[in-house]
Amino acid sequence: MSRALKPVSAGSPAVILAAYQQGAATRLTLQNMETTNLGNLNGMGEFGPRPLDGATAIITGASRGIGRAIALRLASDGAHVVVNYRSNAEAAQATVSTIESHGGLATPLQGDVSSSEDVERLFDDAEKINGGVDILVANAGLVVLAPLGELDEADVDRMIATNLKGTFLVMRQAARRLRDGGRVIAISGEATRSAPAGFGAAAGTKAAVEAMAVALSKEVGPRRITVNSVLPGVTPPERITPQMQPHVDAVVAATPLGRAGTPHDIADVVGFLASDDARWITGQTIVATGGAV
Ligand SMILES: NC(=O)c1ccc[n+]([C@@H]2O[C@H](COP(=O)([O-])OP(=O)(O)OC[C@H]3O[C@@H](n4cnc5c(N)ncnc54)[C@H](OP(=O)(O)O)[C@@H]3O)[C@@H](O)[C@H]2O)c1
């Protein structure tokens, strides 16, 4: 991965806030992509090669939400992105089509991260694209919100299977198969710090993700592979529910930057960590919440 300058992002906070206030979720996503990533997707810029040209990146859970934004960002930086999904093939194909229509490289690959067979097949198929895998973004996640006294055991089992075991399975393959100098970026959540009411079990599974990332950073460091966790705060609007609205409102009120996060806010942090600029950062947790804690 070579170092290159990235075109300056557009899309001011005021514009983003106004779009949220109008409820223009879909337009906001496209607007952000077109103002922050479209220029990159058109190919080589005047500053030279893009940061991730020649790299292959697996992003788990990239059919929608934060994973989709990460796929757009890494594709705009030149990577061939594997758009992993579990069941929503249509959404994954839409992500791929968006990337391809702007000159980027993307392949949809189905696979349930909680299945060791699926994860092995995911890496097998990703390796066929360009002879190896350079970047893993362990993004697929499941959050069921309820006070601990009311949470179903089955929902806890599902969160453990997706968040904890699923992250272990993809990290295990990454440890065995990532090319030297690669990147592992795990998506956790700020709730591991603040543990709001209702987030207890979900935050517990995500705390395990962060612990595994630190251990993995020590295991693969000698091969110049960095491993870090990104901790988003509340990042609507793609899966906001009436149940979550009071929490979102409270978080926005307590956020110094005065709004909720967008998937692109998180994707840009991941883009940095995936680049050579972040070569000296490993075993860290990056909190991306607009200052809310
Ligand atoms: N949004 C937030 O406010 C927020 C805050 C903190 C942390 N996070 C974390 O950020 C990550 C992304 O969140 P999000 O809100 O963008 O998620 P989302 O919109 O619910 O999307 C989840 C993605 O993960 C995929 N997925 C779910 N289970 C899977 C499995 N077992 N195997 C493979 N793929 C699976 C889904 O695929 P299908 O489409 O096929 O179902 C989808 O692409 C998660 O780890 C989440 O915990 C989110």
Automatic annotation (TrEMBL):
Record-linked Gene3D superfamilies: NAD(P)-binding Rossmann-like Domain (3.40.50.720)
Entry keyword Transmembrane helix: no
Coiled coil: none
Top-level lineage group: Bacteria
InterPro entries: KR_dom (IPR057326), NAD(P)-bd_dom_sf (IPR036291), SDR_fam (IPR002347)
Assigned keywords, A-Z: Oxidoreductase
Domain Ketoreductase: 55-240
Family: Belongs to the short-chain dehydrogenases/reductases (SDR) family.
Protein name: SDR family oxidoreductase
